[in-house]
Write a structure and sequence with these properties.
Strand content of chain B: under 5%
Oligomer: heterodimer
Number of helices of chain B: 2
Low-confidence stretches of chain B: 79-92
Largest interface: A-B, 66 and 62 residues
Low-confidence stretches of chain A: none
Shape of chain A: globular
Helix content of chain B: 40-55%
Largest sheet of chain B: none
Structural class of chain A: mainly alpha
Mean pLDDT of chain B: 71
Largest sheet of chain A: 2 strands, antiparallel
Mean pLDDT of chain A: 91
Distance between the termini of chain B: 39 Å
Number of strands of chain B: 1
Strand order of the largest sheet of chain A: 1-2
Strand content of chain A: under 5%
Number of helices of chain A: 23
Shape of chain B: elongated
Order of helices and strands of chain A: HHEEHHHHHHHHHHHHHHHHEHHHHH
Order of helices and strands of chain B: HHE
Structural class of chain B: mainly alpha
Number of strands of chain A: 3
């Protein structure tokens, strides 16, 4: 029954069904929808499947399946299932429908064979995800959601402009590799906004931590990874992405040092980890594309797990800032244990998914002699372990103990985290079945003695340095200024310098207009000139007078 | 023995084992690696500590030159400290 339906349609139908179902079964329907999509992707959908259509004379391909789209879609469906379990206690219909629409639109982007279909799903994704930010309903959630939406609408406008120019340049709407051109560059800028490439990244650490506990799981998975997918499909081999990716990998790590909010720290590490994928897209070889796809798959699951862990702490304690947390390991031991699986996976510990995926990306850089890229990505891995594997867990679960009320974690939350953790371990241990899903054939052994020993060395010495400089890493109750400052703070001086003078000109024009009208009114109403003019001159005479004046004017115009 | 002390001992033990393994690996295998200098004994421990210092102290320096500000820097957000004074997150966290 579901075998031949496009996955985005399955999720869209599920969104409609969930919108009308009762609260007791909505959560299970949500999970079942993602279960169907997982089954479709594993057993039924074959690479090469396409659906074609024609619209306004354009040949569209709303669905085009290949191995690259399948591996991304499988990651999305698995994290959707995990997120569904995690959110089973959450009965808010709006969030459930928005999450399904968001996932559906993300799937739509993955399977879009043409740029117009992609654009439609891209915009649905922006609106649905903005709702999940708003649904956090913290102090700044609605403002953050509005900023998020404005940034993504701007990105969508860049994408639309790029697509239109590209169609003008090539006459094609097919979503293939772009040539260097104005249209291609604008499309790249639109994708770069969603990929959170600095300086276009600030929406991510601004908005995601304001999302709901359950919503952030989906937020962390879909938007940036669909952007990585579009970069792989449209811009593989563009050198600028190598520089952008490496900058991202380091930028996120640097900002994470200063961060106090656990969920914002994880958001900065999304920027950092997506940097690995963007750099791989820039390298563009088959090995690099495999590495980006593998890393995206692994990242969706371990980042989902980390976000679930930090969200569970927020759910239980009402706190997400490390200055307010600490010493709760005996209260939430299983949350800590499951979080640490994600923390070790993202840090590249052997036998976990991150180790396998990162090794492929770095090997791809080494293979094309991009040594500086490989070394800087290793450096970013050290920063990742420092923050997500050491700093965050230490100051959240260990550290100075604080007395605080802690509410029980629902079983569904543990189930969601458990599912994500199982995938992290499964991919790390049995990587050959995982290799079979990657877009290109791959013959790479991540577990060599050399790799294992140098990984052990840099991880253990990072841990030792952490203990040595523990005091320097102590979080402070502060925020970090990022590029969102431009539209959050600098907007006011810009308003004073640019908009205020323009408005002053308009206001002066309006005052002049009022003055002219007032003077004219006074002139015709002035008793000294014509007395009560409007009363003394009959209307008919006035009309005849005006008519005569028109005729005279017309004659003058014709004769002249 | 405290949990922290145990973890430090485990980390020191792991570091010692990895260095010993590295010595044997360097003697027995000539791993062809294109990474600059990575074949040298002790390369990765030094690499880790070097980048650790860059990240931690570089970030702290950025914080001192204005990147780090008070929690009430953006007026629309207001103070959001969770240290107990003001701005606790809602109890009915979703």
């Amino acid at each position: 029954m579901f075998a031949n339906l496009p996955p985005f349609l399955v999720l869209m139908i599920a969104a409609a069904v969930v919108a009308i179902l009762g609260r007791r079964v909505r959560g299970w329907a949500f999970i079942a929808a993602f279960g169907v999509v997982v089954a479709q992707l594993l057993f039924w959908l074959e690479p090469g499947t396409t659906i074609d259509a024609t619209w306004l004379g354009f040949d569209l391909t709303p669905m085009s399946v290949d191995k690259l789209s399948i591996v991304f879609a499988l990651a999305f469906a698995l994290v959707g299932m995990a997120g569904g379990f995690y959110a089973l206690h959450m009965r808010e219909r709006g969030q459930q429908v928005a999450a399904l629409l968001y996932a559906s639109a993300a799937m739509g982007v993955l399977f879009a064979g043409d740029l117009l279909t992609l654009l439609v799903f891209w915009e649905i994704m922006a609106v649905a995800s903005a709702y999940l930010v708003y649904a956090g309903r913290y102090r700044d959630s609605s403002n953050a959601a509005m900023r998020y939406l404005l940034v993504h609408v701007t990105g969508g406008a860049l994408l639309l402009a790029g697509i239109l120019i590209h169609i003008g340049e090539t006459g094609s709407v097919a979503f293939d590799l772009f040539e260097v051109s104005l249209g291609g560059s604008l499309v790249l800028a639109g994708f770069a906004v969603n990929a959170a490439i600095p300086p276009l990244h600030a929406w991510l650490p601004d908005a995601y931590p304001e999302g709901s506990v359950t919503g952030m799981v989906f937020l962390s998975a879909f938007t940036t990874k669909t952007a990585v997918y579009t970069l792989l499909r449209g811009f593989a081999g563009w050198d600028i992405l190598i520089y952008g990716g490496v900058a991202m990998a380091l930028y996120g790590v640097v900002y994470a040092v200063l961060e106090n909010d656990t969920r914002r720290l994880l958001a900065y590490h999304i920027v950092s980890q997506v940097g690995f994928m963007v750099a791989a897209a820039g390298i563009g070889t088959e090995m690099a594309v495999n590495g980006a796809a593998a890393h995206a798959f692994a990242h969706v699951l371990y980042k989902g797990l980390l976000v679930m862990g930090a969200g569970a702490v927020l759910y239980a304690t009402g706190k997400s800032k490390m200055t307010g947390l600490g010493g709760i390991v005996h209260l939430l031991p299983w949350v800590m244990a499951l979080y640490m699986i994600g923390g070790f996976a993202i840090s590249g510990f052997p036998l976990l998914s991150g180790y396998v995926a990162k090794s492929i990306v770095i090997e791809a850089a080494e293979n094309v002699n991009l040594i500086w890229v490989a070394l800087l990505l290793y450096a970013a891995s050290i920063g990742t372990f420092l923050h997500t594997g050491l700093k965050l867990p230490y100051f959240t679960w260990f550290g100075p103990m604080r007395e605080m009320p802690v509410r029980a974690i629902p079983a569904g939350m543990y189930a969601g985290m458990g599912l994500a953790a199982a995938v992290c371990i499964g991919v790390g241990v049995y990587h050959y079945p995982f290799y079979a899903m990657l877009p290109y054939p791959i013959d790479f052994q991540p577990y060599t003695s050399y790799k294992l020993i140098h990984t052990a060395e840099y991880l253990t010495f990072t841990a030792l340095a952490f203990w040595l400089f523990l005091e320097a890493l102590k979080p402070k109750a502060a925020i970090s200024i990022d590029t969102d400052w431009i539209y959050r703070r600098a907007a006011r001086p810009a308003d004073a310098l640019v908009l205020t003078p323009i408005m002053a000109v308009f206001e002066a024009g309006a005052r002049l207009r009022d003055a002219v009208v007032a003077s004219a009114t006074r002139f015709v109403m002035q008793p000294g000139i014509s007395g009560n003019w409007e009363r003394e001159v009959p209307v008919g005479v006035a009309a005849v007078g005006v008519f005569v004046m028109f005729v005279v004017l017309l004659m003058w115009g014709l004769v002249g | 023995m405290t949990r922290s002390r145990k973890l430090v001992i485990v980390a020191l033990g792991a570091a010692a084992i990895s260095i010993v393994a590295d010595v044997f690996l360097t003697i027995s295998e000539h791993h062809a690696t294109p990474l600059w200098g990575s074949g040298l004994l002790g390369y990765w421990p030094v690499f880790a500590v070097f980048w650790f210092a860059i990240f931690v102290f570089g970030s702290k320096w950025l914080g001192t030159i204005g990147v780090q500000q008070g929690e009430d820097y953006y007026p629309e957000s207001g103070p959001d400290s969770e240290t107990g004074a003001v701005g606790e997150r809602r109890d009915d966290v979703r």
